[in-house]
Design goal:
The protein is mainly beta. It has 7 helices and 51 strands. It is about 5% helix and about 35% strand. The protein starts with 17 loop residues before the first helix and ends with a strand.
């Protein structure tokens, strides 16, 4: 019999991943009841939903399964618990339901919800009745809490915060979530006693333990393991750093890339609590501001550039006192980016969507998941500006005031801001601002396609890094050695470097038709030799294509996942042949490039048609329009079938070698 999900108590226990226990879900208000499906089991496992309006001045609303639906607290207020019949009205096995209350669901307003599921070594919710005497409260976190937030519910009272890294003596110190006050010292909060893996201690102060008062406590774990296939991976850390007052601020090593970070300066009054997350914006590009919310006030989100994520943590890049005064201490809670689980279906991590231009602002949705990277192309129009528009969450989802940070698959150009795409902070797509010819022109009419990808272990990862000019390694989170690696300089005009580990390693360029060659140590190696990538790093040499000193880069990494994706190669037979990818329902996306001679980068997809007749094809390296009327590829349950036309679609010429990326 399997153990209860989340309780890693035996080898037979069900593995738990961060995507099972935490969600940042963005939505737009409708003014009437709506159901939020974030795939977090709240009705079965319990937890907390924290909701805040992004576009308006609304309260931070906390509703948990222990106190019950409609029972709300506001972190920006000392007020007692309120009953809001049109607030969060119900919990479910896949999320929650909200009513029409303005703090939750004003028509056309935008909102953010953070859901914390109760799970050992991650998060717990406890309620209790005060007794006015020093005491302990039992909990089920299964580890020593790294942070505890307590709020009195029956009357007014400040939100009391214990944090393990607050000072040298956290057992006597506390912060207040609803104010910008510095750390205060009193043994009446935590009774001068550190929490344990089974209890936390309380003193006699009315904010935590008045006789007959009612309270709720939210407990956050610290670096306790419990997650992943083996149950040994951590997903949350409660730590601290010391500011240096420089734009080259501290780098915080978490051991993983975060998706959500809460930070507060603890040593001086007047500095704000700030929250950033990767759904609203946590980019590496300074021009693509992150959006922060502040638990102590009702302000709408505001664009700043305080932090940048890394593959193993985050770094501070601003001198604002809220995050980086010299010599001051900052405490944080950081949650690991997901997903952690290897995908089981291609539809979970890739989709293609087509649309017809209409010259108006619109949302392109239907991908089925939040986009981490997308490539958009006009289909029936050609010209110098009809490039493959490549954008991703790591470089910046960007606010509507600026635009997406894009690269062009047809060009060596550096990264640019493209105002016609003004965000991918949608749960299943991205936003278009206008009718630019490259993305949404009505034309005659013009038609478009976008290929969307989600980061997932074993399948796809996105890494941003800065070149050193000397051979070095770059850390990634793919979890396996990448089989197809694409690198582009963001800051300088450079070719798109491509490395495949197939056939002992080959290198080429995405924006060119040129043949592939053996990998150069200057591009993909060290010490005069090519170095194959590993499950944790890839190596770049001294060439500006991958590692110019001070240049900034983005890398896209792909690998094969059984039944989901396949990076492979084949030799053409001049007729037709089946490419077996190990799929059961056929390939929905196919990218093919000749390697032993010149050849274009051809893309076929099921959204435009992979069938036994005409298969529309786009060349990723050119600005030419989509070609139609040719039977290039045919469907096959195991993968796809390639045909041959030496002039129009040379993807199966006799004796010629090809590489491909196929996704089921």
């Amino acid at each position: 019999m399997l153990a209860k999900k989340g309780l890693m108590t035996s080898p037979s226990a069900v593995a738990l991943y961060i995507e099972d226990a935490f969600s940042t879900y963005l939505y737009t208000g409708t003014g009437s009841a709506q159901t939020i499906t974030n795939n977090i089991d709240l009705s079965g496992e319990g937890g907390l939903v924290w909701i805040k309006g992004r576009s308006g001045a609304t309260g931070h609303r906390f509703t948990d399964t222990v106190r019950g639906a409609t029972k709300s607290l506001a972190s920006n207020s000392t007020a007692a618990e309120a009953t809001e019949s049109t607030g969060l009205t119900a919990f479910s096995g896949t999320g929650f339901t909200i009513g029409a209350d303005a703090d939750y669901n004003t028509n056309a307003a935008t909102y953010c919800s953070w859901t914390f599921r109760k799970a050992e070594k991650f998060f717990d919710v406890v309620t209790y009745i005060g007794n006015g005497s020093n005491r302990t409260i039992s909990h089920n976190l299964g580890s020593v809490p790294g942070c505890i937030i307590v709020k009195r519910t029956d009357t007014t009272g400040d939100w009391q915060v214990y944090h393990r890294a607050n000072t040298a003596n956290p057992e006597t110190d506390y912060l207040v979530l609803n104010t910008t006050a510095a750390t205060a010292d009193s043994d009446t909060r935590w009774n001068d006693t550190l929490p344990t893996s089974t209890v936390f201690s309380l003193g006699t102060d009315a904010t935590v333990n008045a006789n007959s008062g009612t309270y709720v406590a939210y407990l956050f774990a610290h670096d306790a393991g419990g997650f992943g296939e083996a149950g040994d991976q951590s997903v949350i850390k409660c730590g601290s750093y010391t500011g240096n007052g420089s734009t080259t601020g501290p780098t915080i090593d978490l051991g993983w890339e975060p998706q959500w970070v809460l930070i507060k300066q603890s040593t001086q009054s007047g500095n704000r609590w700030t929250i950033t997350d990767n759904m609203r914006g946590f980019p590496v590009t300074s021009a693509a501001q992150q959006q922060i919310l502040q638990p102590h006030n009702t302000d709408a989100e505001v664009g700043v550039m305080y932090f940048q994520p890394t593959a193993t943590g985050f770094k501070v890049v601003d001198v604002d006192a809220d995050v980086n005064s010299s010599g001051e201490t900052y405490i944080y809670i950081a949650i690991r980016r997901g997903p952690m689980k290897t995908p089981e279906a291609g539809t979970d991590v890739h989709s293609a969507v087509t649309w017809t231009g209409n010259n108006a602002a619109r949302n392109i949705t239907g991908f089925g998941f939040p986009l981490d990277m997308a490539i958009a192309r006009v289909r029936n129009d050609a010209g110098a500006s009809r490039y493959g528009i490549t954008f991703d969450r790591v470089r910046g989802i960007v606010s509507s005031a600026s635009g997406a940070r894009i690269l062009q698959t047809t060009s060596t150009n550096a990264e640019a801001t493209y105002s016609s795409i003004n965000g991918i902070d949608l749960m299943t797509g991205f936003k278009i601002a206008d009718g630019d010819r490259s993305i949404n022109d009505a034309g005659t009419p013009n038609t478009y396609v976008a290929w969307g990808f989600k980061r997932a272990p074993g399948f796809f990862d996105v890494v941003a890094y800065t070149g050193t000019g000397s051979a070095t390694t770059v850390t990634h989170n793919l979890g396996v050695a990448p089989e197809l690696l694409i690198v582009k300089s963001r800051s300088n005009a450079q070719a798109w470097g491509v490395l495949t580990t197939l056939n002992s390693g080959l290198q080429g360029r995405l924006n060119e038709t040129s043949a592939f060659s053996s990998p150069s140590s200057a591009v993909w190696g060290s010490g005069g030799s090519y170095v194959a990538p590993t499950s944790t790093v890839f190596t770049v040499g001294t060439d500006n294509e991958t590692n110019g000193s001070g240049y900034t880069y983005v890398a896209y990494l792909f690998a094969s996942v059984s039944g989901v994706s396949k990076v492979g190669s084949y030799t053409g037979n001049g007729s037709n042949q089946t490419i077996n990818c190990g799929f059961t329902t056929g390939a929905r996306f196919v990218l093919i490039k000749r390697t032993d001679g010149t050849g274009d980068w051809y893309i076929y997809d099921s959204a435009r048609g992979i069938d036994s007749g005409s298969d529309p094809q786009i060349k990723l390296n050119t600005t030419s329009a989509e070609a139609t009327g040719y039977d290039a590829v045919d469907p096959d349950n195991s993968g796809f079938i390639v045909n041959n036309d030496g002039t129009n679609f040379p993807i199966n010429a006799n004796g010629v070698t090809y590489i491909y990326l196929a996704i089921a």
